[in-house]
Design a protein that fits this description.
mainly alpha; Aspartate Aminotransferase, domain 1; 3-stranded antiparallel β-sheet; disordered N terminus; RNA binding
């Protein structure tokens, strides 16, 4: 009968005043209305953009390109490279023809282009600020190696059989604050925690934990510490925050009545800890399925907390999917919890999905920054600096450099005290008890400042840049 009415509705489809009452009657007979609204979280939610995180990734897109070009310059002799050769080498990294040369012109605080005094071609090198940022990041990276060891221990505790594939950890080493030589500086230097093994069935290497029992102090999740701190500070009801997560929906996200009820119920669903072994549980019941789904949320939440910047790409989370019992469709799963995580597709033309932990950021900045994060953000500041300030900085550097050369020439020529200021090298001055000065000539009190001495060596000074070019 319903099929007959549906065909009849198609027959009376032409829009005419006479057929409108008949069409309305047939629509009411064929349409099926749900008897009650569901109180579960919808599977398909509309994705709402958060411009704070998207703008963060727009800057990250530029810094990612800078990090591709920087090793090409540092690997060259004297850390300088012709612009034409840089264009040729950058094409292997995905740059188009002449794109690298145009790209470095946009960031004068990072790259410096100059005319070679001998070859008379354009060369490129890193600026002084860029070198200082590299040194700052290197110091911060190796200073937090003990924290990186703790992160790797916690990652192994969250895995099923206390081992992870070495290649997967190497791909995500920057996110977890591991140095490039982490196999030696982290794994081999701490044999009481880790060991490298070769798989019998494949040629892959694995990192295994040698600890027989898990450290109880490391099995406490970051969300559990937040709950305890919130309970102590605000005195909230313990039953309400016992299994809850911090939820901050993006601006413009529509929260309906039934969705609010579903979130209230989901926040009170108990779950197993990511560090707990769940191999002996039966997952066939509906209650167990809810617990294991919420455990997956807690696992990704803890995984993001172990990163340096509280963010990681979705593709790198997928590398740990089998080892940590994560769902297959990770993107759809994370979109159901937009109040906890945010997925940004900006930064690489939608090819890379970056997952942020919403509670760790405020207005696009990390709430609790660390030294390594601040060092990496310093590069972003150099990228965002304008060319006008770079021109002023270059003029100041040239002015100071010219001033130093004039002063050194003045001291080399006269060798005596000026009426306004005395210039001398402290390496060649010795302080005696009687207050006399020795300028390295072997005469303590013999030669007076007013006496002039002949200089057998020619009075020639070479600029530091010219010395580099001569090499």
């Amino acid at each position: 009968m319903i099929v007959f009415f549906s065909y009849s509705a198609q027959f009376f489809k032409p829009k005419h005043e006479f057929f409108r009452p008949i069409r309305f009657l047939l629509y009411n007979l064929t349409s099926t209305r749900p008897m009650s609204k569901s109180t579960s979280i919808p599977k398909n939610l509309l994705r709402v953009r958060d411009h704070g995180f998207d703008n963060y990734m727009e800057v990250e897109k530029k810094t990612r390109k800078v990090l591709k070009i920087r090793p090409l310059i540092l690997s060259q002799r004297n850390q300088t490279i012709p612009v034409s050769r840089l264009d040729f080498l950058a094409r292997r990294l995905g740059f188009e023809q002449d794109e690298a040369g145009a790209f470095i012109l946009k960031f004068p605080h990072v790259f410096e282009i100059y005319d070679h005094p001998v070859q008379r071609i354009l060369y490129c090198r890193l600026t002084r600020k860029a070198h200082l940022q590299i040194e700052q990041e290197g110091r911060a990276l190796y200073a937090q190696i003990p924290e990186a060891v703790t992160r790797l221990r916690k990652l192994l505790m969250m895995s099923n059989n206390a081992r992870l594939r070495l290649e997967h950890v190497r791909i995500a080493r920057a996110e977890f604050g591991l140095p490039e030589d982490f196999e030696h500086s982290v794994i081999l230097e701490h044999p009481q925690y880790f060991r490298l093994v070769d798989a019998e069935e494949t040629r892959n290497k694995y990192i295994e934990s040698v600890e027989k029992e898990k450290d109880p102090s490391l099995t406490v999740c970051a969300i559990e510490k937040l709950r305890e701190r919130e309970y102590r500070e605000k005195g909230a009801d313990a039953e309400d925050i016992r299994f809850s997560f911090i939820v901050n929906f993006p601006p413009g996200f529509k929260i309906g009545k039934y969705f609010r009820i579903a979130m209230w119920k989901w926040q009170r669903v108990p779950y197993w800890s990511p560090y707990e072994d769940v191999s002996g549980y039966d997952f066939r019941s509906i209650e167990a399925q809810k617990r294991i789904e919420k455990r997956a949320v807690a696992t990704i939440h803890e995984l993001l907390n172990l990163t340096v910047e509280k963010r990681i790409t979705l593709e790198r989370i997928a590398h740990f999917r089998m080892a940590m019992n994560l769902p297959k469709k990770l993107k759809d799963f994370l979109l159901q919890h937009q109040g906890i995580f945010y997925i940004s597709t900006r930064g690489n033309y939608g090819k890379i999905h970056t997952v942020f932990l919403r509670e760790a950021y405020k207005r696009g900045e990390l709430i609790e920054p660390n030294d390594l994060y601040l060092a990496r953000r310093k590069l972003a500041e150099l990228v965002l600096s304008s060319s006008r300030t770079a021109r002023v900085d270059r003029e100041l550097v040239n002015f100071e450099r010219g001033r130093e050369n004039d002063e050194m020439r003045y001291f080399k020529r006269d060798g005596r005290e000026n009426d306004e200021m005395t210039y001398f090298r402290r390496d060649y001055v010795d302080d005696d008890d009687d207050g006399s000065l020795d300028f390295g000539g072997g005469k303590k009190n013999g030669a007076q400042l007013g006496e002039e001495e002949e200089d057998d060596e020619p009075n020639e000074f070479v600029d530091a840049e010219d010395m580099n070019f001569a090499e």
